[in-house]
Design goal:
The protein is mainly α and about 375 residues long. The protein folds into 2 domains: about 5-40 and about 155-370, no CATH class; about 45-145, no CATH class. It contains 16 helices and 2 strands. A two-stranded antiparallel ribbon has the order 1-2.
Length: about 375
Amino acid sequence: MNRYYFKANFKIAIKSKKNFLLVCLLIISMTFFLFIVETQKIGDGYRQWRDYYESVQVNEDYFDSSSLRKKDYKQTYANLCKQSAYIAVLQNGEEFSEPQTYLKGSENLIETMLDGYKNNYKGAKTLNVPPKYELYQKLATYKYLYQHHVPVVMNSKASSTYLVYILSMLGSLIFLYILFISNDVWILKLRHSSLLKNIPYRNKDEISGKTTINIVLTIIPVLIGIIAAYIFAGVRNGFVTLNYPNVFYFNKIFAIPLWAYCLLFLVYVVLLVLFTTSLTLFLNQLTKNVYLTTLIGMLVYAISYLPGTISKYLFWLPSSYLNITNVFNGTVANTTELNFLNCCTGALILMIWSLIFMSCFSYLVNKGRRVR
């Protein structure tokens, strides 16, 4: 990497008003979104279980003597009665502050809820049961808490639970942040070549320099935001250990400590910056337009929201792996029904596409030089 060329580009990047605004917005949003979580009572576990209990009771009343003669209906009714019994255990655990009792009751309840899917809760017309995969995620979390004797936190406003929530949101949107940071990564060179006129460079200097700059403009604000969010939520609502679990998918769904999740999150963000920078370098050179570069980048991201029946045939495209949350919690693998689509697969595909875009960028630059 040409040191002088890198310094010149770095000074331009950090003096950019757009980049400064984006960095500040990211840190402020990660920290102070806590007020919305508190006001809206997002992640209130007690309220969620109470609402579900009411739904179970309502659906129990749908069954009469004639419907219970049917085997499927009888199985559903027995399942709902069993769920009611486990919810009573949860209430006892809550009332007498017995964490292990509460966690074991939660495990039993979720396993019973999953059993109900064997006949798709036939006869329970309005039961508000969570999707099956969401139940597997909850089960993994409760098993981790029970096995490691970590007290459950039934809200998203304590230090660790808020960090889990904000990382989930950030993982869905971080690609757009990187896209806006890097959408003019090559336009400056095209429009203001005199600024860097007397500094020799090679294409690999351009690629490595721009990527490094974007990593700095992304990783440092994200790291500051993580620390600020944890401390701010802890000061307001109490500190919780960083061993608190977060859901993670590899070849099956399980839970890992939050500190480990944060490290994996940051590593994956670096790969996402590498991909996005190579994409925007290529699009800048190809379109010579910031807005068109941004639009195409957003379209690439939008493909990730196609139905799973379509996405399973497009798994070789980078789009499905731009949403870190969906990759890490197994949503990509679940919706496409392709179990091998995990973070390692995503990282590999992003790296391959990065190399493709870098090669295309270098080809266009060299072609332009020959024309001149």
